[in-house]
Amino acid sequence: MLDVISEDRFELKDQQSMILALAMVRRRLLELGLSALMISKLLTVSSELSVNVLKYANRGTLFLKQLKKAQKRGLQISVVDEGPGIADVEKALQDHF
Q1: Looking at beta carbons, which pairs linking 24-33 to residues 24 or more positions away fall under 8 Å?
Q2: How far is residue 74's CA from residue 65's CA, in Å, rounded to a whole number?
Q3: Taking CA 14 as the corner, what is the angle to CA 85 and CA 24, rounded to the nearest 5 degrees?
Q4: Does the pLDDT at position 97 exceed 80?
Q5: Around Cβ 16, how many Cβ atoms within 10 Å?
Q6: Which of 1, 8, 44, 53 has the fewest CB atoms nearer than 10 Å to its CB?
Q7: Element (H, E) at 8
Q8: Coil, strand, or helix at residue 93?
Q9: pLDDT, tens digit, for every residue of 55-76?
Q10: Residues 78-89: pLDDT tens digits?
Q11: Taking the CB of residue 79, how many other CB atoms lie within 10 A of it?
Q12: Which helix (H) or strand (E) holds 61?
């Protein structure tokens, strides 16, 4: 059974709010005891998604859920925006678009 230990929600509305959200992502990842490389990768993904929210949608939300199943712990990271979406998904998947 998967248990939710805690949930955090961060409104992304400007660079300062994004920095605070990413600091909490880093903190939660450190608490899991992940390697420096894995923390770096997950922070990069979280940062890229958050920057895209501010760049293309102006605002959004970063959600963190600390999860536990048996003796294992994890972190679910979700970034959601309410922007206009991608007009041409196929083209967007091409390099340099």
Answers
A1: 24/64, 25/62, 25/64, 25/77, 28/64, 28/66, 28/75, 29/75, 32/73, 32/74, 32/75
A2: 8
A3: 100
A4: no
A5: 8
A6: 1
A7: strand 2-12
A8: coil
A9: 999 899 999 999 999 999 999 9
A10: 999 988 888 888
A11: 20
A12: strand 60-69
Cβ-based burial of 17 (10 A; exposed 0-12, middle 13-18, buried ≥19):
middle
Task: Show the tokens assigned to 1.
Answer: 């059974």
- Measure CA of the first residue to CA of the last residue in the chain; give whole Å: 42
- Neighbouring residues of 75: CB distance < 8 A, sequence distance ≥ 6: 28, 29, 32, 64, 65, 66, 67
Q: Collect all residues with Cβ–Cβ distance below 8 Å to 15 and sequence separation of at least 6.
A: 54
